[in-house]
Every structure is written in structure tokens, then in C-alpha cells.
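dude i think i finally got it to work??
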Amino acid sequence: MADVVLIGVDGGASKVLAHRVDILEDPLRFAPVEPIVEVSYDDSERYQSGFRPHPLADQLAEHRAGDVHQLEDETRQESAFLDSFCRVVSGVCAPEGDRPVVIGIGLPGLKTPDRRGISAMANGPRMPRFLDKLESMLAEQGYSTLQSIHALGSDADYCGVGEHWGAAGAMRDVSNAYYLGIGTGVADALLLGGEPVPFDATRDWMAKTWEIMFSDDRSYEAMISAQGIQRRYGDQMGLSLDALNNHGVFPWQIFERAVSGEEVARSITGETCEALAQLVLHRIVTLARGFGGARLVDSNRRLSSEHPYIGQVFDRIIIGQRLGDIWQNPDFLPVFSTPVQQRLIQLLQASDLASEIKKHYLRANERLRSGLIVHSELRNAPALGAAVDAYFNRA
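look at this
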């Protein structure tokens, strides 16, 4: 189908990525199109390197009151975001003639009530009129057929949408699936009953990874995220995160060092495997019979043990982004995917889940069901999901 020019944009805390999307028919599917253009906000001449976010408590208070007062330094920093977004759009699509241009955008942060702006963001400026300003700038650049961008979406939820509708998505042809996008942080996404379900829609009975404590002082996100792995490695090596970044020591290199036998790296990756196996079991238990009582970052928050999917099972667990790349690399089998799966088998066997639930995940030869845990082939699932959402909500 060529009735529209479809563009997906994934805005992060430090950079923005975009690509065009092909619309495939029979069955309807979506596929990213080269080039994939990425721009760091600090490449903009408008970027303020010394920017400090407004105190989060104050941001949340104004968000709850529905009365966001954007500060002058936030307005200036927003201009770097807007400049970067315009650059990625122009990098993948010059202003065209008659075809409507449809853009979908994912951004972190709490959205304004109309979902066209950001009213709270931990690591960036508040931008309550972001889409109004972006549309105006793109119109000035000649995008005369740009359709109104319907909303800003969740980059985590868009991972699930991309995996479900993408031609190479791992959420196709299954009923229930759980996606873990493990990059700087952790993005959770769900497919339930064959449809992507926003994680916020399950907040009464399922917590996000960053909300669940692995130990007294670390969340699961701190244990399995790329930055968490780096920080824990740096703590044991006496190196700061900046020092590790400057020396090119990222999770990939830490897993390489574990393969080569370095004791500290093996300790860190071993802890990561344990945390990931426990987290997957926690998701399995929560779907099957409700929240199992894990400790939360917010000790006052209570989750329900009841939900509409009690007794169901996951057909697939998908690991995406940076740790997805590590998962699928055969060189890392001995220090990542193999120990995670072995530990998950032990946890399932020792659990008090119903026997029919266990049988879904385990085979008689004490192995996990083939194809239960897979890596994502969509490195840019959030941008693809944003485009899909925009396509279905176009005017």
C-alpha cells in the first residue's frame, strides 16, 4: 500500500531515531525501511550541556494538578529536541507531493491529558506543547501534507505493538507473550489474548520491572539492564560509569570477559542470569495465578491477586534490544542463555504452580519448551510500533 508516507520515531532520553515503514498486505504487516536515521540531542547547537531537570517531586505535583509551568531552561532544551526530531524526519523523508505524511512518535515521560505533550520527565525537559510545536516546524519546512500527529505513545508499549505487527515480529501467531526490552533501562510489553495490552492497563495486578525489588537494595532493572550491569561491574572494579563508557566497556564486553574467565565479569553475569530467571518466573506466576507478593520499590503499593487472565500461560518470552543481541550470540551461550534457562527450569520445578501450568513450560526431558524464550529480531521495535499506532489512528 502506498496511500501514505508512514514514519516511525523513537525518542529517547539522549537521542531520537526514525525510519520509514512499508505497509504489506495479505496479511497486513509492517516493515522498517532503510535508512534508519539517528540523531543525538547534543548534536544540536541548541542543546544545553548543563541542563538539569526540574525536581521530579515538583514535576509530579504539577502533572497531578494538570497545570504544567514550563521553565525557561526547559523551553530552550526542548528546542534541541524539536531540532533533532525535525532532522530525523527530514533524513528519512523529504517533503513530498500529494501523499499524506503520517508520523508516529514514542517518548518517555508522563504525558499531558491530550497526550500531545510531556508533563513530567525524569531525565529531560517538560514539553507540554511538543506536538503542536513539532507540527508547526515541519510545516515551515514544507511538509504540507503532514497529518496531525494523534498522540505521543509509550516507547515500551510500542515495543509490543512493533513485535505484534512487524513482518519479523516475535509476537505474531501467539496468544500470550511477554517482551523484555533490555537496554539502558528495561521496557516491558505484553500480548494477551492475541492483542497488545498497554502495561499501564495491567498496573493493578502486574508491576513494571523497575518497580520490583530483587534484593534489599537493588531492583530487577538494576540487575538486568545494560546500565545496571555496567554499574555493578564498575563498583567491583573501582570504576565509574563514565570511565567504563570512555573505555568502551559495555555489557557486550563484560560478557566477553566472562567467557574468557575473568572472575569479576563471571560474578556479574551470573547475578544477571539469576535475576533474569527469577523475573521470568515471577511473570509466569503472576499470569497464572496473580501477583505473588514480590517486594516493590514503593512499599505502600498493593497489587491485586485477581485479574482477567488467571490460569493462562505465556506462549513466548521475548528478549530484545542490547541483551537480546547478547542472548542470540552463540559465543555467550555458556554465560547467558544456557544458565538462565537452566535456572528457570529449577525454579519452575520447585514452584507450587499447578501441574498443567508446569507442563506447558517444561518437557519430560527436563528442558524448557522449544521456542519459549527467543530474541527479538526488531532492534527498532519502538519506532515500528509508533508507526503502526499512527497508521491505525490516522485521520
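Residues 31 and 147 are 21 Å apart (CA to CA).
im so relieved honestly
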